[in-house]
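Batch manifest, entry 17 of 40.
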Amino acid sequence: MTNCSLLKIAVATLLHNNAIMCLYDNVVKRNLEHMSPRPKHIPANAHQTSISLTDEEQFAVSWIRTVRRQRGEDRKTLNDILVDALWYLLEKKEGKTKAEIHAMIPPAQIAPIVQGNITEMPKPKPGR
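Output type: structure tokens
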């Protein structure tokens, strides 16, 4: 193959890839315009955990989720259902309110910052 034919193949490949990327960008932009993100309803100070559910327990959660969806409620995720059940159990069975539980949480310990371990980085020189 001559250099000219290799150049033609390279240009054709680049044009093809460029056309695909333009189409992809248009599709992504169009889809982003129509998407509305679900509002975040998990508190920022929540810690992630994992649980194990039996088939019956998973079905029960699914049933609750379906009923809540039919009623148009916002709290229909697994996290929402389990948190609601926890607070219901604490209030009705254990006799503890949210405020009482909150009062029992020990205050967070903030470690003091030791100034000797901090190194100030020099500012970059302009023009680089």
